[in-house]
Automatic annotation (TrEMBL):
Key word Hydrolase present: yes
Alphabetical UniProt keywords: GTP-binding, Hydrolase, Nucleotide-binding
Similarity comment: family membership: Belongs to the GPN-loop GTPase family.
The protein's name: GPN-loop GTPase 3
Listed GO MF terms: GTP binding; GTPase activity
CDD domains, alphabetized: GPN3
Coiled-coil ranges per UniProt: none
Source organism per UniProt: Allomyces macrogynus (strain ATCC 38327)
Role noted for this protein: Small GTPase required for proper nuclear import of RNA polymerase II and III (RNAPII and RNAPIII). May act at an RNAP assembly step prior to nuclear import.
Family matches, as Gene3D superfamilies: P-loop containing nucleotide triphosphate hydrolases
Length: 283
């Protein structure tokens, strides 16, 4: 089996930590041991004990105090510090002590989506985990189910999920979290359409409602949603944490994605784009 891991990503408040705690409890009940790694240096408390915690290396509060950085700058500093001290991660996860262990890890990541959409830090961590302890890694991207009530929020959420997928290049599952809050307000057939979003959904939502500031915006937004649609790039799995069947069904899909990742070799990020070098052609 080897080491497997879910990298749980998504915007602040999207339900990552709750998802991690729910999954840990579910796996424990299923007698499938799992370990939790907290990668959020700003985390305050957990409903589940962490096996490893980046706050033992560095905390956002310390960086903010000592260097006077704001929350985003301090977070990026912490993650870059981690990327420069990956031997700490190996140690905390027991990779050196037992390189061939069969382990399942859930990794709770910070809520700053720029870490997944354009900074290279997460890719560096992914490539390192794969290289140092042969981790097979699946990305799990959380988005709140309430977004389905607003087409603009919903499709911008789809774009963030897609950016993470394209940037990280690992098997990827998108999860519609907090389903318990909307499940009684949405028709199941209608929900199915949000799980496989297509451009007609955006059109239908906004047609005749006067929501477009101008036809140019409509053209641009429709082109973007059609791109998602044409390549079937984004789909979601609903998660209702109050329903064991829903948790089990999601886990099954993630297990398939992890299996798919077994043959993949995550790569280190390429060097920064250098304008003077004209190195952009490689991208
Ligand atoms: N009803 C309901 N509430 C949820 C669910 N998941 C999360 N919440 C609530 O949403 C809020 C944010 O959840 P978290 O799990 O802390 O979200 P997070 O993505 O880890 O947030 P950050 O750590 O800030 O990035 C909390 O008040 C949770 O109790 C869910 O499935 N159902």
């Amino acid at each position: 089996m080897g080491r497997k891991c879910q990298l749980v990503m998504g915007p602040a408040g999207s339900g990552k930590s709750t998802y991690c705690a729910t999954l840990m409890a579910h796996l424990e009940a299923a007698r499938r041991p799992a370990k939790l790694l907290n990668l959020d240096p700003a985390a305050e408390h957990f409903e589940y004990d962490c096996t490893a915690d980046v706050r033992d290396l560095i905390t956002l509060a310390d960086v903010a105090d000592e260097l006077g950085y704001g929350p985003n700058g301090a977070l990026v500093y912490c993650m870059e510090y981690l990327a420069e001290n990956l031997d700490w991660l190996d140690d905390a996860m027991g990779c050196d002590a037992n390189p061939d262990a069969d382990e399942y890890w859930i990794v709770d990541c910070p809520g700053q989506i720029e870490l997944y959409t354009h900074f290279p830090i997460m890719r560096t961590i992914i490539a390192h985990l794969h290289r140092s302890a042969a981790f097979t890694i699946c990305g799990v991207y959380c988005m709140e189910a309430a977004f389905v009530t607003d087409p603009f929020k919903f499709f911008s959420g789809c774009l963030s999920a897609m950016s993470a997928m394209v940037q990280l290049e690992i098997p990827h599952v998108n999860v519609l979290t907090k389903m318990d809050l909307i499940k009684d307000q949405i028709d199941p057939a209608r929900l199915e359409r949000y799980l496989w979003p297509d451009a007609s959904l955006m059109d239908e939502w906004t047609e005749g409602e006067g929501k477009w500031a101008s036809s140019k915006w409509k053209g641009l937004n429709m082109a973007v949603t059609q791109l998602i649609d044409s390549y079937s790039m984004v789909s979601f799995i609903p998660l209702d944490i109050t329903d064991e069947e829903s948790i089990g069904a999601l886990l099954l899909q993630i297990d398939h994605a992890v299996q798919y990742g077994e043959d993949l070799e995550p790569e280190e990020p390429k060097d920064e784009f250098d304008m003077e070098d004209g190195g952009g052609d490689e991208y």
